[in-house]
């Protein structure tokens, strides 16, 4: 791969598949409120058999290098891409994270951001304010309507928080189970004979 030209698929049919997949990933990103370029970049990296540079991604995705750099950093923060070190190369190369549990965990972790927490707390504050509001008798039905709507949204966010915590916990249990299955080593007993199931401490 040269500095100015990325690896291109030889077959027109496979090239079409790559383009369609990148476009599809951009639509998925837009659906979740993320920049379309972010989804397209992940799609390009995911299908690439080799790590890609920022210049490669510019050619694949069709956005500016600055936009690619910004979105790659965001993807890295989410755990969706990782930087690959190449000896003798001054450029940065990236590859996509293929473990979807890690991807989901990284995205869900965003819920812990202060900005998101503040947005959710606004719903609770508004609900409390409606309950404490001094309104005219003719506005009672409107206040009840506000309470109902805000209460429904608060219930949804509470359920979502529970779901996220459950998914995160399942991922921790998955890693713990793998360690339990493969993290043990057979070590010699005091008599010099291997003891099955013993753990090295």
How would you portray this structure in words?
This protein is mainly alpha-helical and 201 residues long. It has 2 domains: 12-98, Winged helix-like DNA-binding domain superfamily/Winged helix DNA-binding domain (Arc Repressor Mutant, subunit A, Orthogonal Bundle), CATH 1.10.10; 106-182. The chain contains 7 helices and 5 strands, in the order H-H-E-H-H-E-E-H-H-H-E-E. It has a 3-stranded antiparallel beta sheet. It has a two-stranded antiparallel ribbon with strand order 4-5. The radius of gyration is 25 Å and the shape is elongated.
In what order do the strands lie side by side in the largest sheet? 1-3-2
The whole-number mean of residue pLDDT values reads 79
Number of strand segments: 5
Radius of gyration: 25 Å
Helix content bin: 55-70%
How many helices does DSSP assign? 7
Give the total of domains.
2
Strand content bin: 5-15%
Main sheet? 3 strands, antiparallel
CATH class of the largest domain: Mainly Alpha
Shape: elongated
CATH topology of the largest domain: Arc Repressor Mutant, subunit A
Following the backbone from N to C, one meets helices and strands in this order, namely HHEHHEEHHHEE
Query: How would you name the CATH homologous superfamily of the largest domain?
Result: Winged helix-like DNA-binding domain superfamily/Winged helix DNA-binding domain
Cα separation of the termini: 47 Å
């Amino acid at each position: 791969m040269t500095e100015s030209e990325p690896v291109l698929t030889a077959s027109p049919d496979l090239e079409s598949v790559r383009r369609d997949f990148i476009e599809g990933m951009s639509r998925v990103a837009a659906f979740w409120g993320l920049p379309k370029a972010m989804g397209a970049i992940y799609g390009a990296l995911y299908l690439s058999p080799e790590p890609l540079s920022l210049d490669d991604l510019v050619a694949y995705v069709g956005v500016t290098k600055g936009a690619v750099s910004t979105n790659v950093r965001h993807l890295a923060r989410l755990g969706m891409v990782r930087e690959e070190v190449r000896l003798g190369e001054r450029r940065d190369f990236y590859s996509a994270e293929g473990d979807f549990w890690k991807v989901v965990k990284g995205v869900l972790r965003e819920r812990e951001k202060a900005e998101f927490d503040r947005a959710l707390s606004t719903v609770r504050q508004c609900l409390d304010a409606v309950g404490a509001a001094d309104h005219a008798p003719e506005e009672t039905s409107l206040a009840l309507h506000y309470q109902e709507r805000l209460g429904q949204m608060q219930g949804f966010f509470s359920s979502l928080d529970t779901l996220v915590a459950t998914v995160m916990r399942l991922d921790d249990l998955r890693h713990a189970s793998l360690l339990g299955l493969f993290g043990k080593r057979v070590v010699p007993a005091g008599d010099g004979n291997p003891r099955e199931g013993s753990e090295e401490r």
